[in-house]
Amino acid sequence: MTSITEPAAPPVADAAPLGEFDIAIVGAGFSGLGMAIKLKQAGFDDLVMLERADEVGGTWWSNTYPDCACDVPSHLYSFSFAPNPNWSQTYSTQPQIRDYLRTIADHYELRPHLRFGHAVREARWDEATGRWEIATSHGLVRARVLIPAMGPLTEPRIPDLPGLSEFDGPVFHSARWDHSVDLSGKRVAAVGTGASAIQFVPAIQPRVEKLYVFQRTAPWVVPHPNRPIRDVERRLYRTLPAAQRLVRGAIYTAREALVLGFVKRPRLMRVLERGARRHMERQVPDPELRAKLTPDYTLGCKRILPSNRWYPALGKPNVELVSGGAREVRGNAIVGADGVERPVDAIVFATGFHATDMPIGRAVRGRDGRLLDDLWQGSPRAYLGTAVAGFPNLFFLLGPNTGLGHSSMVYMIESQIAHVMGALETMRRAGAATVEVRPEAQERYNAELDARMAGTVWNTGCASWYLDETGRNATLWPDWTWRFRRRAARFDPAAYELRAGVGAAVAGAQSPTAASMPPTRRSSTSSPGVAHTSSLRTSTSTGPA
Ligand SMILES: Cc1cc2nc3c(=O)[nH]c(=O)nc-3n(C[C@H](O)[C@H](O)[C@H](O)COP(=O)(O)OP(=O)(O)OC[C@H]3O[C@@H](n4cnc5c(N)ncnc54)[C@H](O)[C@@H]3O)c2cc1C
Asked: Which of 42, 196, 295, 385 could form a disulfide with 402 if both were Cys (CB 3.0 to 4.6 A apart)?
């Protein structure tokens, strides 16, 4: 597999000093922004946000392909503390989500902390100073605490097709859409039939001359319930925020019901399969095409995709669905598993991301200079997807096993943010210099995860990007999401070792009592699009915060 990555990292020692901060966050998507807001509200102001892009937004800044949108309703796919009463449809488009996140950055006055164009190349724990040394494309940053919020779906993955480098035409990944290329009247190959392809294929189909869609495995596709949000609803949400919270809660609960099928009883997925089959039968009259489009695995094993436009687009005369995926590129032709050469003018890859083999594994070194990848050996593991033994004062957001196949990632992000706040507040109270998860707590946690994963739909025999190179599901959280919230938001000091300085443990810091979360300060300013702010629910909150 080829990845579109940054140039090789300069050694930390060669980097010019850029500054010293208490806390460094890497990434300014939902995770980084949410974390910075909560840190500032709790008085952790000595904060830098390193972001390689030119703007905030993360996923919603970089994915600009036609008709890019979320597939979790926006009332839920947004911060609990910053609801947007102005969403124009139930499932928002990429520009709307990007603008929401920009408004968040302005509203919470995060811009002074942001360093755009700063790609983090390497981070190394310095035991002598108790600081992280972070080599960026602009120099060296030192920080007591490092929070990688670099996103699980950040690095596009492109298959190493033989002959691809000799292809004499535009080639790009859906997550780096090349808007300088006009696909009108062109013969285009779209490789992949996942969540991104299903959105842009119907959008480009009417304007291309010919579209070859290379499908390795057929996805399960369900009807898309998107609809415009009426003015009267928006007015209601503006005047009565509780109404929007109620809708959010209802969406959360309905989505959570899917956990029954995903985790507890995969056979229940048959009910949804029947609905998905009916959807296909209604939209695909051609039995031959229907056969190619019928998945051969249990619904939910791979991501379930909502669309009302996918099947109709594939049935158009200028579209050919090629089963078995793309095999190689020969001159200006792309060759499918059937061995047929199909001449094309452009190739668009919608082949996903380096989700379980993220570059961060090769960039972060903990105590003793050990790389994360050396520790992980192809299978990322952390405690609550957040902390890794041997890596003091480091907190991942959306680390291993925090993904969801059915609900909002923002819910998981907020849960982890509460955990980090619990850790930092505990350190502050105890006067600790470092906090580090105990190896036995991390092992116990992962053994529990693996045991729970065994009976899930994701282990029913499909090949998915949820699985790492060892075949282990290192991506998803295998339980109710409120269970993750309950566990993560209640910071348990017994799982951690706190030290006053290098080598010294903090007396009393290992008390098994949960650290109670201090109240967060409220932002008093208001801005369009972000109507109401309130503090993040923490501790034992089990609802859709
Ligand atoms: C097309 C698409 C649609 C999606 N739809 C949904 C959905 O409907 N619902 C849902 O719950 N989830 C969805 N997701 C998942 C989505 O990624 C998460 O919901 C969420 O946006 C992740 O936020 P994040 O801040 O953790 O990561 P990101 O949004 O990926 O942000 C990470 C940031 O880190 C920066 N970064 C990475 N590496 C470095 C580095 N070395 N140095 C400096 N900066 C770096 C990146 O530039 C980026 O800005 C979708 C993902 C994609 C790709």
From this structure: 385
Rounded average pLDDT over 468-489: 97
pLDDT band at residue 539, thresholds of 50, 70 and 90?
A: very low
* pLDDT at 535 exceeding the cut of 50: no
Residue 172 gets which letter from DSSP? E
CA of 26 to the centre of ligand 1 (A): 12
Give the burial class of 85: count Cβ atoms within 10 A of its Cβ; 0-12 exposed, 13-18 middle, 19 or more buried.
Answer: buried
Pure H helices in 1-43: 30-41
Collapsed DSSP state (helix, strand, coil) of residue 40: helix
Between strands 2-3 and 157-158, the pairing is antiparallel
Which helix H or strand E contains 123, and what residues bound it? strand 120-126
C-beta atoms surrounding 521 within 10 Å: 11
Distance 353 CA to ligand 1 centre (A): 11
Taking residue 65's Cβ as centre, other Cβ atoms within 10 Å add up to: 23
Torsion angle, CA of 505/508/511/514, rounded to 10 degrees?
-100
Residue nearest to atom 4 of ligand 1 (CA): 70
- Using alpha carbons, list the distances in angstroms from residue 274 to 72, 156, 223, 329, 405: 21, 33, 12, 38, 19
Q: Cα 74 to the chain's mean position, in Å?
A: 15
First-last CA distance in the chain: 38
Distance (Å) from CA 388 to ligand 1 centroid: 21
Atom 3 of ligand 1, nearest CA residue: 70
Query: Is it the case that residue 508 has pLDDT exceeding 80?
Result: no
**Which atom of ligand 1 is found nearest the CA of 121?**
41
